[in-house]
């Protein structure tokens, strides 16, 4: 597929629209979730998804991999899992007398880590390391994971028995935490029709090379300094709310967000702008993803939990009390034409 427009520049919105169309031929509803997956893919981030079983989380990632001709692997996390089950290990060959490297399932374009909180901390750390470094070292040899590389880890909010909750420092590695809810009655009717009807063949509409090029293009999206300052203020307010005139929040926040949150807000705003067909980010792009970027990084106090105040409510209050910068000029997004 040729993803070039008349100006010779990649028509990101059109390409992403075709990818989304193919995915939605299989997946019903979940528009917000799908949009966050595409944002994470463009921004080279990773997703932590919380939702009850049966909400098409696996189906979404698998279908997406088919549309971009990418490889897809799924790991079911269990208490007896060891790091070698993820990253791979050295295997002895009796015929040759040599050791060969057997790479694990993390070597895929799209990786689904199902119920990540069911595995012990050592296994979670092995996955989070490859997420950050995008490489694995086995017996002194470094092996890079394929590009693009997206990890989507899921958590079940219902069951807590036999789980190992992710420490805040590890959760911070995920760019966004997305909450997936039940479908509406109308959507569920369509889901049953599609699942019980003839199988739908998904058509590949892009390549991994095109997607990698889009990721590089996403880094070129213009972000106004005022918008970066807005991101800094939002994150700073989660750490020292009194400094930003939100004294009532101080007793509800145990720990605020790290600088990774500020980076995630800026990169996410870039990706959202690109999805919407712009080469410059607006404040709306940032506010739309702010809750997803911040909710897992704001740790409420025991007082907040006792009063039923969630991290989402804290983030919502911060967003409502922080002044949004003026719309940056579109002309700033492009370099000035050379003077003849």
From TrEMBL:
Pfam families: AAA_3, AAA_lid_2. Residues 46-176 form the ATPase AAA-3 domain. Residues 252-315 form the ChlI/MoxR AAA lid domain. SUPFAM superfamilies: P-loop containing nucleoside triphosphate hydrolases. Keywords: ATP-binding, Nucleotide-binding. The keyword Endoplasmic reticulum does not apply. The keyword 4Fe-4S does not apply. CDD domains: AAA. InterPro entries: ATPase_AAA-3 (IPR011703), CbbQ/NirQ/NorQ/GpvN (IPR050764), ChlI/MoxR_AAA_lid (IPR041628), P-loop_NTPase (IPR027417). Belongs to the MoxR family. This is MoxR-like ATPase.
């Amino acid at each position: 597929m040729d993803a070039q427009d008349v100006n010779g520049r990649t028509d990101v919105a059109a390409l992403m629209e075709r990818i989304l169309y193919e995915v939605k031929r299989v997946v019903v509803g979940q528009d917000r979730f799908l949009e966050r997956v595409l944002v994470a893919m463009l921004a080279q981030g990773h997703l932590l998804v919380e939702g009850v079983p049966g909400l098409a989380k696996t189906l979404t990632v698998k279908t997406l991999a088919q549309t971009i001709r990418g490889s897809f692997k799924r790991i079911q996390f269990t208490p007896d899992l060891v790091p070698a089950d993820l990253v791979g290990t050295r295997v002895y060959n009796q015929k040759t007398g040599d050791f060969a490297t057997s790479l694990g399932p993390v070597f895929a374009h799209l990786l689904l880590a199902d119920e990540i909180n069911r595995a012990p901390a050592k296994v979670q750390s092995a996955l989070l390391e490859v997420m950050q470094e995008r490489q694995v070292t086995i017996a002194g040899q470094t092996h890079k994971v394929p590009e693009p590389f997206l990890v989507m880890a899921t958590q079940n909010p219902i069951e807590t028995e036999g789980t190992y909750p992710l420490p805040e420092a590890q959760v911070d590695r995920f760019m966004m935490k997305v909450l997936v809810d039940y479908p509406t009655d109308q959507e569920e009717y369509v889901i049953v029709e599609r699942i019980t009807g003839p199988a739908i063949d998904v058509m590949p509409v892009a390549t991994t090379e095109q997607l990698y090029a889009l990721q590089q293009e996403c880094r070129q999206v213009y972000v106004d300094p005022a918008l970066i300052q807005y991101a800094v203020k939002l994150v700073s307010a989660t750490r020292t709310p009194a400094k930003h005139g939100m004294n009532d929040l101080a007793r509800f926040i145990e720990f605020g967000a790290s600088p990774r949150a500020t980076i995630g807000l800026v990169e996410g705003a870039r990706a959202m702008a690109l999805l919407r067909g712009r080469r410059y980010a607006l404040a709306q792009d940032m506010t739309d993803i702010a809750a997803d970027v911040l909710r897992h990084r704001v740790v409420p106090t025991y007082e907040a939990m006792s009063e039923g105040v969630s991290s989402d409510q804290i983030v919502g209050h911060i967003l409502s009390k922080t002044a949004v910068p003026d719309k940056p000029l579109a002309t700033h997004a492009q370099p000035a034409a050379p003077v003849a």
